[in-house]
Amino acid sequence: MATFGIPWTQKKYRPRNLDDIAGNKEPLISFRKWLSSWEKGIPKKKAVLLYGPAGTGKTVTAEAASRDLNFDLVEMNASDKRTTASIGKIVGTAAGQSSLLGKKRLILLDEVDGIDSRADRGAVEAIISAIKKTKWPIVLTANDPWNPRLAPLRNTCLMIQFKKLGLRDSIPYLKKICEKESLEIDDRALKFLVERNEGDMRSIINDLQTLSTGKKTISYDDVTLLGWRDRKSNIFEVLGNVFKAKTCSWARKAIELSEVNYEMLFEWIYENAPTQLSDPRDRAKALQALAKADLFLKRIRQTQNWRLLSYALDFMTAGVAMSREHTTPGWVKMRFPERIKLRAKARREKALRTSIGRKIATKCHLSTGRSIQYFMPYIKQIFSNKPRDSKSIADWLELDEEMIEYLKQ
Ligand SMILES: Nc1ncnc2c1ncn2[C@@H]1O[C@H](COP(=O)(O)OP(=O)(O)O)[C@@H](O)[C@H]1O
Ligand SMILES: [Mg+2]
């Protein structure tokens, strides 16, 4: 029987060496070859882009290779806004300095396709310039490298493709795990697991761990009970996993199911914890866990130390789940995070105010700022008190429905 704790995919069955990684033989060979070519001096391509579907081993390949070839791994997640904001600086420093003990460095920039286009204009250029000046090998990963924004990276990097695992590579690997766990599972069940997850090893191993709780044998029926994986699990299910989880691992799994980023997930959990955990004792514990998660998140923002992320995630998922001790079971509606809603509303209103300001500005030959500051308050007064006059003003200024609604408030 398996014991629960950390997800297998994070530690116990996270390949430590390149030889432990299943399938993808060719990309692994090219990658190793490229990395060892650094021993003879700086090669022409100073960065690689490992690309392919999720859960095929891109990230662990970089990690395992750094262990095998004795590199110090400097790991960053590129999909985070704040990483990309300072990417040039971070990569630049890490790329230039030699490491403390004179050990070689390997820089991993994970999930570059997550770079947000609007927020991170310049992030791609920053990466390119870091690649130009680096003395150390740089590894980028992406699920989807064909995004036009990533075009410059495709030209700069050695492209190495990872493919989702087929039955031939995945089944023997999974059987080894089952053996180590003393789990009995029939072939049909294993095959179904692989197909259900479309060769995504992370999800397959997660499923296996879930199924093995409290069991020594897993039948085909057990697996079919999981149903087909809805790969875009909605946020409510994700939250359900956090608040109703009986084990830490279940709660933590929420992160993998979640399509939203962890900060948004934090907001969702923070908003709903007080109502989901109705007993004050549970609520107090949950808020304590969230406060700790918040501290870690803040520290990450300040120091860019991404190794702390797993602590933050543990506190906000498992920490909250384990606070549930006295709350009686029952269904309580989930709410959209109020802080996000308020921020969105404020943004919308600001945009509306500006566009009304522009309308006034053109008619009255003023700046938009002045129109908003001096004229808008009067117009708002008229709109909320004198509907008849407001009609002609609205016509004159050519205001649309939404603007009129706003002025009436
Ligand atoms: N090819 C593979 N062989 C063995 N395990 C794998 C493989 N690919 C993924 N995994 C499992 O999934 C976990 C996550 O892999 P990861 O490298 O993060 O995937 P990716 O970066 O491609 O999304 C690993 O720790 C491991 O447990
Ligand atoms: Mg990855």
Keywords:
4 domains, Helicase, Ruva Protein, domain 3, five-stranded parallel sheet, globular, 409 residues, 7 strands, 8% strand, alpha/beta, binds adenosine-5'-diphosphate, Rossmann fold
Query: What does the radius of gyration come to?
Result: 26 Å
CATH architecture of the largest domain: 3-Layer(aba) Sandwich
Tell how many strands the DSSP assignment holds. Answer: 7
CATH topology of the largest domain: Rossmann fold
> Which word captures the global form?
globular
Description of the structure:
The chain is α/β, with parallel strands linked by helices. 57% of the residues lie in helices and 8% in strands. The protein folds into four domains: 24-161, 3-Layer(aba) Sandwich (Rossmann fold), CATH 3.40.50.300; 167-225, Helicase, Ruva Protein, domain 3 (Orthogonal Bundle); 235-336; 341-408. It has a five-stranded parallel β-sheet, sandwiched between helices. A two-stranded parallel sheet has the order 6-7. β3, α5 and β4 form a beta-alpha-beta unit. α16 (338-364) packs across α17. The longest helix has 27 residues, at 338-364. The chain is globular.
Summarize the structure.
This protein is of the alpha/beta class. It is 57% helix and 8% strand. Strands 2-3-4-1-5 form a 5-stranded parallel beta sheet, with helices on both faces. The chain has a two-stranded parallel ribbon with strand order 6-7.
